[in-house]
């Protein structure tokens, strides 16, 4: 039995590696259950806020945008430190420039990611520093912006 000669190569899904996507923003509470009553932002009824409702998380999205704009032309521009989602204060030891992120160690990177609300921190040092760099000065993705996207209440408001 003769097999036809392949004139072109068309990869199958098994041949193409899947791209590495960033996880969606966590919708879990900023403070895990049982972490103590003093930690975590709470609403007026005493319930823990979800991350996308947390004012510090929302401010971090604005800080990321400002950091991106300041570092577009100059990599050594000073970064505005991100806020800890539980305390609302600037994260201690936050890198001053994008180049300083490369000087961080694994444990420092994990500490920063947990402070901004990343609940699933895994991978090697390169992966962790990539996530820190992404948090420090990149434009938030559409699914990280509160109140945007399909089906949000803002989309349903119409004037007639």
Structural summary, described in words:
By secondary structure, the protein is mainly alpha-helical. The protein has a domain at 51-139. The chain is built from 5 helices and no strands. The chain has helices spanning 55-71, 98-101, 106-115, 125-137, 153-156. The chain is globular and about 35 Å long. 22% of the residues are buried.
Q: Would you spell out the secondary-structure blueprint of this structure?
A:
Elements: H1 55-71, H2 98-101, H3 106-115, H4 125-137, H5 153-156
Helix pairs in contact: 3-4
- Give the overall shape: globular
Total helical segments: 5
Label the structural class: mainly alpha
Number of strands: 0
Mean pLDDT: 72
In helices, the fraction of residues equals 25-40%
Which residues sit in consecutive blocks of at least 5 with pLDDT less than 50?
21-39, 148-160
Radius of gyration: 21 Å
**Portion in beta strands:** under 5%
Distance separating the two termini:
71 Å
Order of helices and strands: HHHHH
Characterize the main sheet. Answer: none
Features:
30% helix; 0% strand; disordered C terminus; mainly alpha; 160 residues
In short:
This protein has 160 residues and is mostly helical. It has helices at 55-71, 98-101, 106-115, 125-137, 153-156. It has a domain at 51-139.
């Amino acid at each position: 039995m003769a097999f036809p000669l392949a004139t072109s190569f068309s990869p199958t899904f098994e041949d193409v590696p899947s791209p590495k996507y960033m996880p969606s923003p966590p919708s879990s509470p900023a403070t895990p259950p049982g972490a103590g009553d003093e930690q975590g932002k709470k609403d007026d009824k005493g319930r823990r806020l979800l991350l996308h409702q947390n004012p510090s998380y929302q401010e971090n999205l604005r800080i990321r945008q400002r950091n991106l704009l300041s570092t577009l032309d100059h990599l050594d521009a000073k970064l505005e430190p991100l806020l800890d989602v539980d305390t609302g204060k600037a994260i201690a030891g936050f890198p001053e420039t994008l180049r300083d992120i490369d000087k961080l160690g694994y444990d420092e990177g994990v500490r920063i990611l947990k402070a901004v609300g990343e609940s699933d921190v895994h991978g090697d040092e390169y992966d962790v520093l990539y996530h820190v760099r992404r948090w420090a000065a990149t434009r938030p993705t559409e699914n990280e912006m509160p109140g945007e996207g399909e089906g949000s209440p803002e989309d349903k408001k119409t004037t007639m």
